[in-house]
Amino acid sequence: MDVNRGDRVTHISSFGTPSLGLAEYRKEHMPPGDPSWKETYIGSDRTISLVQTAKGRVIRLEHDVSTPHPYSRINSLGGTRGVFEDYPERIYIEPDHTNDEWGDFGKYAAEFDHWLWKEHANPPAATAAWTTS
């Protein structure tokens, strides 16, 4: 998205839920006298931030490490022609895709993958100069 490489952050708004999850977990699972009973939880269970850049781009960040939920690492990037989501990689680009069906990102990687991934995804094997004795 070129942040700090041609674009910059201009506004950030963050909102957090009350800190209830860890205290609830402690109440249900930790015995009296456990050291965790001396802790005071002050951070949000979930924080959502909206970030706007000078070029008008909007980034939504969500941080949640204390509420119960299945593992997820979905990254999403949308624009005027479509959207890309990661984990698993999938893409939807108009007019290539129709009927609300995701397409295979592999067919578009050469055109759309970030230069850092192209350049560093498969680093060369270590040489003898890199080994220690």
How many separate domains make up the residues? 2
Gap between N and C termini, in Å?
42 Å
Widest sheet: strand ordering: 1-2-3
Number-wise, the strands total: 6
Average pLDDT figure: 85
Organism: Streptomyces alboflavus
GO molecular function, one term: hydrolase activity
Domain Glycosyl hydrolase 109 C-terminal: 1-103
Keywords: Hydrolase
What does this structure look like?
The protein has a three-stranded antiparallel sheet, with no helix packed on it. It is 14% helix and 26% strand. It folds into two domains: 1-65, no CATH class; 70-121, no CATH class. Strand 5 and strand 6 (90-93) form a beta hairpin. With 133 residues, it is of the alpha+beta class. It is elongated and about 60 Å long.
